[in-house]
Amino acid sequence: MTADKSDIRGRILEAARKRFTLYGYGKTTMAEIASQCDMSPGNLYRFFPGKLDIAEAIAREDEQVRLAELARIAGDTGSNARQRLRDFLFLELRSTFAKFDDDPHAIEVAQRIAKERPEFGAERVAAERRMIARILADGMKSGEFNAADTEYLAEMIHSATLKFRFPQRWTNAPLDVLERELDGVLKLIKDGLTPRANTQAA
């Protein structure tokens, strides 16, 4: 893609992001996005086959930023594995809660993508589980965790903490309540992972 095309694509995504935020996905049309970009609808379709493709492109941009920050935590060997697991899960909670809190219409977009582009969600889940498995593997090496099958345990931890990932999709609870609940769930998880000789560890 040439620089000019990349710039135009960026303008389209920014215009669509603004309209989705103000009016919601369902009430935004391709013609309106095109008008905001000072182009014809026909020209817009040269860049994106449909509105859902634009929404997915926006979501992928956002996910790249979030996953990069999660990867930084997962790979931070300067912190112990127990702290990294906590930081990882709390970042997920706080970042995704803030996204929907700042932009309530984003829930509509997320639900539409989850229904019509399930592969997008599957890619995100796989990436998150690989990072959790890395933390668990490091915890095994340091003796902090008893986690022989790290891939299986990463899958189970990811499943057990689903409520705290884009939480407004599942609950109306405020952030402080969700943080308290995640603290409790995380304590149970870490206690279960701790070698029996170290059950008194923090």
Structure description:
The chain has 202 residues and is mostly helical. It has 2 domains: 1-49, Arc Repressor Mutant, subunit A; 52-198, Orthogonal Bundle (Tetracycline Repressor, domain 2), CATH 1.10.357.10. It has 9 helices and no strands. The protein has helices at residues 3-23, 30-36, 41-44, 51-74, 81-102, 106-116, 118-142, 150-160, 175-193. Helix 4 (51-74) runs antiparallel to helix 5 (81-102). The chain is elongated, with a radius of gyration of 20 Å. The model has no long low-confidence stretch (mean pLDDT 93).
Tag the structure with descriptive keywords.
0% strand, Arc Repressor Mutant, subunit A, mainly alpha, 202 residues, elongated, Tetracycline Repressor, domain 2, 9 helices
Tell me briefly what this model is.
The protein has helices spanning 3-23, 30-36, 41-44, 51-74, 81-102, 106-116, 118-142, 150-160, 175-193.
* Overall pLDDT: 93
Q: How much strand content do the residues show?
A: under 5%
Number of domains: 2
Q: What does the radius of gyration come to? A: 20 Å
CATH superfamily heading of the largest domain: Tetracycline Repressor, domain 2
What CATH calls the topology of the largest domain is Tetracycline Repressor, domain 2
The counted number of beta strands is 0
Helicity level, as a percent range? Answer: over 70%
> How far apart are the first and last residues' alpha carbons, in Å?
51 Å
CATH class of the largest domain: Mainly Alpha
Order of helices and strands: HHHHHHHHH
What structural category do the secondary elements indicate? mainly alpha
The CATH architecture of the largest domain can be named as Orthogonal Bundle
Could you describe the largest sheet, including whether it forms a barrel?
A: none
Tally of helical segments: 9
Low-confidence stretches: none
- General shape: elongated
